[in-house]
């Protein structure tokens, strides 16, 4: 293995944001649950532990899919073991509370999460567009399909 191979590259996760139609739904839900965790940081609990942990923890993010479009991301700060009430061990993705809106990118439905390599990750919206209200999902999808972001 050469020196370049020993350095962890960055990889991201993509996950459907089930039950949310827009980015504000996610941020509101996470804010309402902040008191559940001693450090106040949002978590997403998943059944499987990422095999590419080193790459994910090398400044990786969780990209959120809303109604068929990647619209936002959150940096993954760390992974922690979470023991459920059923005694099953799960992976807690500890997330930065800051949510970055991204350029809308269409994504077909899938189960669980998928890896996303750095070169394929959507770009963040410009800083002056981060606080814009989300467009309706259908309009965002139509604009993304014709290349207008």
How would you portray this structure in words?
The structure is a single chain. The chain is α+β, with helices and mostly antiparallel strands and 149 residues long. The chain has one domain. It is built from 4 helices and 7 strands; from the N terminus they run αβαβαβββββα. The protein has helices at 3-6, 23-33, 53-56, 137-145; strands spanning 11-16, 43-46, 61-66, 69-83, 89-95, 100-106, 113-117. A hairpin with a 2-residue loop joins strand 3 and strand 4. The mean pLDDT is 87.
Keywords:
149 residues, alpha+beta, 7-stranded mixed beta sheet, 19% helix, globular
Our measurement of the CA-to-CA distance between the termini, rounded to an integer number of angstroms, reads: 40 Å
Based on secondary structure, the structural category is: alpha+beta
Biggest pleated sheet: 7 strands, mixed
The gross shape turns out to be globular
Low-confidence runs of at least 5 consecutive residues = none
Strand content: 25-35%
Please tally the helical runs, counting DSSP H or I stretches of 4 or more residues.
4
> Domains counted in the coordinates: how many?
1
Give the radius of gyration.
16 Å
């Amino acid at each position: 293995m050469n020196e370049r191979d020993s350095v962890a590259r960055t990889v991201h996760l993509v996950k459907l944001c089930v039950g949310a139609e827009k980015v504000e739904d996610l941020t509101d839900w996470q804010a309402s649950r902040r008191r559940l965790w001693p450090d106040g940081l949002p978590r997403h609990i998943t059944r499987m532990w990422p095999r590419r942990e080193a790459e994910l923890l090398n400044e990786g993010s969780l990209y959120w899919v809303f109604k068929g479009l990647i619209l936002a991301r959150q940096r993954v700060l760390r992974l922690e073991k979470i023991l459920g009430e059923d005694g099953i061990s799960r992976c807690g993705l500890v997330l930065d509370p800051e949510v970055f809106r991204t350029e809308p990118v269409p994504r077909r439905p899938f189960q669980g999460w998928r890896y996303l390599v750095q070169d394929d990750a959507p770009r963040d919206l410009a800083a002056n567009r981060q606080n814009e209200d989300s467009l309706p999902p259908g309009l965002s999808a139509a604009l993304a399909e014709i290349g207008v972001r």
